[in-house]
Amino acid sequence: MNTIAIANQKGGCGKTTTAINLAAELGRRNKQVLLIDMDPQGHASLGLGIGDRDLPGLYEVFSDELSFYDVVLSDVIPGVDLLPANIALAAVEPLLTGQPGRERQLLEQLEKSGELYDHVLIDCPPSLGLLSINALRAAGQVLAPVEASLFALDGIQQLHEITTMLCEKYHYDLPIRVLPVMFDSHTRFAQTILKQIREQLPVGLSGVQIRHTVRAREAAWFGKPLIDYAPHSTAALDFQRLADEILAANGQAVAIPLTEDHEENDMDPISKKPQRQMVVMNFDEIDCKRLQLAGDFNNWIPDHDIETRNINGHWQKVFTAAPGVYEYRIVVDGKWQQDPTNSSEIPNELGGINSLLQIPVHH
Ligand SMILES: Nc1ncnc2c1ncn2[C@@H]1O[C@H](COP(=O)(O)OP(=O)(O)O)[C@@H](O)[C@H]1O
Ligand SMILES: [Mg+2]
Questions:
Q1: Strand, coil or helix: what is 348?
Q2: In total, how many domains does the chain have?
Q3: Do 248 and 226 form a contact (C-beta atoms < 8 A)?
């Protein structure tokens, strides 16, 4: 069994996206895959369309109420079983604290479960607490998605320290492989970061880089892996390469030849840039002195690249953006809030709510 912990204590660096898409790609190649959602936020479960908040999970297993197989959902997508998570998973850390063998609970469960799976992928939470430690102890290798930023390198150093400690304590080997994600390899900055990882960190570096695509977020929103939602998107192809790399490292032949590289399907065929469209947003009901707009489309800088109109007290914002799903908030007289005129929303990492704007592809 090839058990991979997908870990990095930094949030929002692509762990869940990697877990879902790698699982989907391995499943598509007729491998038996178990995806363990180890994050109380349950994003891997949500990203596969499993949003039921009452499903039992590892808490029930670790407290001996249910067996491992009672909580595994079979074939949520072809070839992939899911051990789901929801906020109840947060109760696992206090449950295990103080217990002998608290770091080995997941490993023991996997060992008991026999060698049913070819690959077990563990989507870790954004912390290095007991949940992540259980994942690292159960794993044979770590895949650490990293966005091109200097802070990201800090995180890898810490992850390396903790795996070294575990390996010394339990006498096993746990190589870390960094996976660059949301990557724009053309920038000099991205190349600098790659060089630093290669030369300064005592970890491996994947030969694959997952490119940035607006499709990743959309796919998660629709509860689908990229190979279903946007099979020709850049990142879907990158995840195929990652699956190749992982199978090759496992001594297995690559089952599927590399598909020819496609450009994003929302790219202009001539300029190769995303086709931006004019977007007009109306905020009729909002009565204030100043209304600003910030979101994924303008790097969250209020009113950056946005034209504001006020017609008889009705606010209007005009800007251009490529097709996709964008999160945004408005700033009403200096106060950040969700858009009360839009019921389409998503929780953000700070415990608040962002509004969602969908810009469809224009034919
Ligand atoms: N290759 C990519 N291109 C564009 N956006 C991405 C890509 N990978 C992930 N994202 C987006 O980045 C955000 C964080 O990714 P996620 O996988 O949830 O990270 P983590 O699990 O580390 O918190 C999500 O909104 C996700 O859709
Ligand atoms: Mg996640």
A1: coil
A2: 2
A3: no
Q: Is 207 in the pocket of ligand 1 (CB under 6 A)?
A: no
The ligand with the least distance to the CA atom of 45 is 2
- Please give the Cα distance from 155 to 206 (Å, whole number): 17
17 lines ligand 1 (CB under 6 A): yes
Q: Which of 249, 267, 293 is the last residue of a domain?
A: 249
Cα–Cα distance, 240 to 247 (Å, whole number): 11
State which residues form the domain around 327. 277-359
Nearest CA to ligand 1 atom 17: 14
Instruction: Count CA atoms within 13 Å of residue 124 on its CB side.
Output: 30
Residues 215 and 352 in one domain: no
CATH number of the structural domain spanning residue 78: 3.40.50.300
pLDDT digits (tens, 9 = 90+) for 219-259: 998 999 999 999 999 999 999 999 999 998 776 544 333 33
Nearest to 124 by CA among 217, 239, 44: 44
Q: What is the pTM of this model?
A: 0.73
Joined together, the tokens standing for residue 255 give: 């089952």
- Nearest ligand 1 atom to alpha carbon 39: 21
Question: Is the C-beta atom of 119 inside 6 A of ligand 1?
Answer: no
